[in-house]
Here is the input.
Amino acid sequence: MILNAMQAGFGQFCPIALASEVLTQRWMTLIARELLAGSTRFNDIRRGVPRISPTLLKQRLETLEHAGIVQRRRAASGGHDYALTQAGQELRPILRGLGEWGQRWARDIKPADLDPGWLVWNMHRRMNVAQMPHGRTVIEIEFADAPRQRHFWIVSNDGDIDVCLKPPGHTVDLAVRCRVRTLAEVWRGLRPLKAAIRAGEIELRGPAVLRKNFPSWLLLSAYAPIERMR
Here is the structure.
């Protein structure tokens, strides 16, 4: 299956055509994005690409391994993890450029794009831990309009950030309530966080000092500073 997928090419020896035989397969660029973001375990990669089936993710990782982009290794804790090779690391500026183009020119966000779990997963990778309180801080995020799971928890423990889908068993220090689109647009840099808080579109509950400092905890998307052109 791996060879057949890669052999079904474009009939051209152009380097772009040859690279596209691998990278334009569905989900490939998103899997590469997750690996470049630091995910190494199968389940973590899938949390960043939640709509892919485990079977298809396994096939795509095998294709990347066959192409020399990913190396599958035995993990010290058991099982296997995935590491980018030099060829995989060289995708970083390519995907960065693709993301910058998408921030400027791709279509607007549609309701079907608004996955709250994916949003929180990305938020936890872009927390400004230097600005967060020492010790443990528990942030509960409630999406008022989420169709299924509405509550998520981000737990910071001296710079170690985790995402919980169930109550983590610790007191919530700061509660955040909003619509999925509101926080997604803030995350993308399409609207200011402080303005959304002032307008009451993002509600914060907790000690005044935590409410005041919350905006400094979020680094937002790496593409947020890029101006939208469309």
